[in-house]
Amino acid sequence: MMFSKGLGRTYLLPVYQNRVAKHIAFWLLYYISFSLIWARDGNYFASFYLEFVLLPARLIAAYTMLYLLIPRYLLKRNYQQFVPLYIALLMGSALLHCVSDYFFYQGLLLNEQGPLLTLSGLSRSVMLINSTVLFLSAVKIFQLYLMEVENNKGLQPEHLALKSNRRTYIVSPSDIRYVEGMGNYANYHMKDGRKIVVYTSIKAALEQLSECFVRVHRSYIVNSEHIESFSQDCVYVGGEEIPRSKHIADEQLLAGLV
To answer: What is the DSSP letter of 75?
Structure first.
């Protein structure tokens, strides 16, 4: 186990890194929070008991959504099947919610003999389950989005559209040897010898390029895939000598070889 500063943080590391432990911690917090929120007249026992009885229906709905409906239908944009399945999931979970409440809470704890199903009770169950499912779905989709962003880091865009002298040039980033900043303009030096001058700053030019491109100097960006050699002061690309700032590490220049 990795130790860190602070005893509390040390004990929390395994919980944070363990997927099962994180799920258990979330549902435990969820259970305690809602039990306290819905407690009436200080009757915490009844509230905790009720939330415990109703929790399985919410668990079934949540995990069916997270591990079945989202990956198999929503992410694949199969909305025609996703929508009816989602509605069926809510209705089925709400029915289980009502049945659990009727038999294990009203009948077992309160000894009341009310109706098994009512429209208001079913609607309330649908709303409670839906709020939980929507919250967890939003968290799941946000996590997937962050993973997608992380996975796409460093990937070359297929093409760039460079506007120069009333023309738009469609170029592949791999064909760019280096970019030279010239005030409000950037000169793209291509491997076929062309020079495309674009009205943009060197900073904006870098933002369009992948991690293979390194800003080696305040006025130069080089494509590490085209670097022929380098020294402490210069980088050589296509026979051209480009100045290198002192803070640029060798590892950055070798990024295109990884």
So the answer is: T
pLDDT along the chain (258 residues), means of 10: 40 56 91 88 85 92 95 91 95 93 80 79 92 93 83 66 91 93 94 94 90 91 92 91 91 72
Residue 10: Cβ within 10 Å count = 13
Q: Which of 197, 170, 171 is nearest to 183 (CA)?
A: 197
Helix or strand (DSSP H, E) at 56: helix 44-64
Residue in 217, 205, 201 with CA at minimum distance from that of residue 252: 217
> What percent of the chain is helix, strand and coil (3-state, nearest 5)?
55, 20, 25
Say how far apart CA 237 and CA 223 lie, in whole Å.
8
pTM of the model: 0.55
- DSSP three-state, residue 221: strand
In this structure, the strands spanning 195-199 and 160-164 are unpaired
Distances (CA, A) of 38 to 56, 86, 131, 240: 18, 27, 15, 73
